Amino acid sequence: MSTKIIDETAVIGKNTNIGHFCVASKNVKIGEGCVIGNNVIIHEDTVIGDNVRIDDNTVIGKIPMKAANSAVTKDQKLPPAKIGSDCIIGTSVVIYRGCNIGQKVLVADLSTVRENVEIGDFTIVGRGVAVENFCKIGRKCKLETNVYVTAYSEVGDYCFLAPGVLTSNDNYMGRTEKRFKEYGGVTIKKGGRVGVGAVILPNKTVEEDTVVAAGSLLTKNAEPRKIYAGVPAKYFRDVPEEELLENNL
Known about the structure:
2% helix; mainly beta; single chain; globular
């Protein structure tokens, strides 16, 4: 007796191994040479490239839940979840429908990637990271353990977010109608780096090659190639020449 449920419309590539108690729903496409762990759920229309590893208890293509009073989650028809070739998806990861993940991306254990999210090639999404909806994450980024990327944010290429970085998109914490006029995520431009436990407030921009130091609270836009530190964060000094991205590619 089979321990797998594979819909008759699902397409499974050559040399792909699927573990026990897995589900591949209607119109799922899985490429060649993939390794799918145990108890993995792949929802309908999901497209998975070649040589992808998906570990135990992971869910791909989940439909979003909408709370009655949600200000962000919208009723919408979402495109299929797509995972590029040569990706590694860890244990107990949840990737929503409408998410597009590039090639050679690592999404580590216990992470969540919401709908309407794009993640570029070679990026690392660390353990326990949450990427909320309507976000774009660039190529060759590192989002370390327990990073929280709030909805409507954009992270450019080659960015580094250290463990425990937090971002916010609502200055009014759910109160008053005024919040809808000022609601917005954060922007971290190419090569931006944010230290351990730093907090970035709504609609703030970290410019190219700028550093927000560990434990800082960024309450204003940060200018290019400078280091900001403190609570609230203030200009500390310029980024040393040898640390600039252009000198490290």
